[in-house]
Amino acid sequence: ISAKEVSSFFLKRAQSLNPRINAITSFNDHALAEAEKIDEKIAKKESVGPLAGVPFGIKEMFCTKGLKTTAASKMLANFVPPYDATAVERLKNAGAIVLGKLNQDEFAMGSSNENSLHGVVRNPWDVTCVPGGSSGGSAAAQASRLMAGTLGTDTGGSIRQPAHFCGVVGVKPTYGRVSRFGIIAYASSLDQAGPIVSSVKDAALSLEVISGFDKNDGTTSQKAVPAWSKQLNENVKGLKVGLLKQCMSGALNADVQKAVDNSLDILKKSGAEIVEVSVPLIEYAVPVYYLIAASEASSNLARYDGVKYGYRAEFKNLSAIPLEDFYGETRGQGFGAEVKRRIMLGTYCLSSGYYDAYYTKAGQVRRLMVQQYQEAFKSCDVILSPVTTSTAFKIGERISDPLAMYLNDIFTTSTNLAGLPGMSVPFSLSAEGLPIGIQLTANHFDEQRMLNVGLALE
Ligand code: GLN
């Protein structure tokens, strides 16, 4: 089968099914021509990469040369970048075909994909439910096989939580593994990119392709990228799996609880040792995360001022408009409600008089949280926990209650705060037939062991 045939199959499937779930925001008109080029290379026996001809969908957060990159915001509704994000460039160099762009929450702020310029994404398992967020389009497109692979971003759970809600594999690598160059910034000290795909092996391979040092991102690590996909090994004999105490108290829905118990049983039967570990400061992960994320977002989003690029409000007599009004109108019209909420919260936290009480304090708690994780990893190799307390919720159910929405991130945000790699691996179905994933977290740069345990659970 040729690369062109594969792309054309996925393209047709995506075009006919997408209207039901709204995961894809735009298609790449050149996809088939690009696939043809791969076929030509193969015919000429030229070397092609490990992803030759594999159709990928890319979250709207990633800059894609010549393809609209909106961040699902009116602010960037017509933005067509002149370059590719490093992660996208590396996918393409490996032979992948970018088939289209994928829906998300505006500027990746949200847990349900309900805050989007392009409208709500529906969960393919039950179209009355959310797919999770903010990479809801990636998870939904992957779950319904509209793409062979997708990329998402994860600032506080945006890869792992939608992967859990949609029954696919999502990996957020160690902070610094994947370049953030060309990814629209939300909260720079937390943002990481990673794959949302159908199997642990696909995750290992695509992560391998996009990882590694990039001179354009000073926070990328110089560490060599292991051949994760080749070294995958489901043998967990003798491995210590830490059950996170903080995730097992109360709040869990019965199906999620059962999935966690069953996953532990499987690992125990395969020879792993289960130990209880504790990261007490996880109790404060949500407030600390929202403080830091909102603060960094308020600073990162200051660039959208209507002057350089992006949306600009219309004015009858531009030269007579005071600058403050110019910014106010532009930003007032360009940003959605959730983004404005975060900008206001972040600006407040960073303002003089409050900075030390909020931002500095949150940074201190974050540092202590890292130490507690390091302590926990002295007694285990990989930490196991639920991804969220429940399965996918109904569309509209939490949209008017931001706090309830934020609490959904209780088990995912600490991973980003500590810069650790984390993944969600599909494990079982709830009584209503909705997917349940298991979250695995490993120590910095120990993706391999995390992926191995993922494989054992898959
Ligand atoms: N739900 C979290 C938020 O709204 C996480 C989002 C993300 O990881 N991009 O900030």
Essential attributes:
alpha/beta, Amidase signature (AS) enzymes, 458 residues, 38% helix, single chain, globular, binds glutamine, eleven-stranded mixed beta sheet
Explain what the structure shows.
Heterotrimer of A, B and C subunits. It is an enzyme of class 6 (ligase). GO terms for molecular function: ATP binding; glutaminyl-tRNA synthase (glutamine-hydrolyzing) activity; transferase activity. It is a single chain. The protein is of the alpha/beta class and 458 residues long. It has a domain at 3-231: Alpha-Beta Complex (Amidase signature (AS) enzymes), CATH 3.90.1300.10. 38% of the residues lie in helices and 14% in strands. It has helices at 3-21, 31-43, 86-93, 136-143, 160-166, 200-210, 228-231, 254-269, 285-300, 323-334, 337-350, 355-379, 402-407, 413-417, 447-457; strands spanning 24-27, 55-59, 97-102, 149-154, 169-172, 192-197, 240-244, 273-277, 382-386, 422-429, 435-442. The protein has an 11-stranded mixed sheet, sandwiched between helices. Helix 1 runs antiparallel to helix 2 (31-43), helix 4 runs parallel beside helix 5 and helix 9 packs across helix 12 (355-379). The model has no long low-confidence stretch (mean pLDDT 97). The chain binds glutamine.
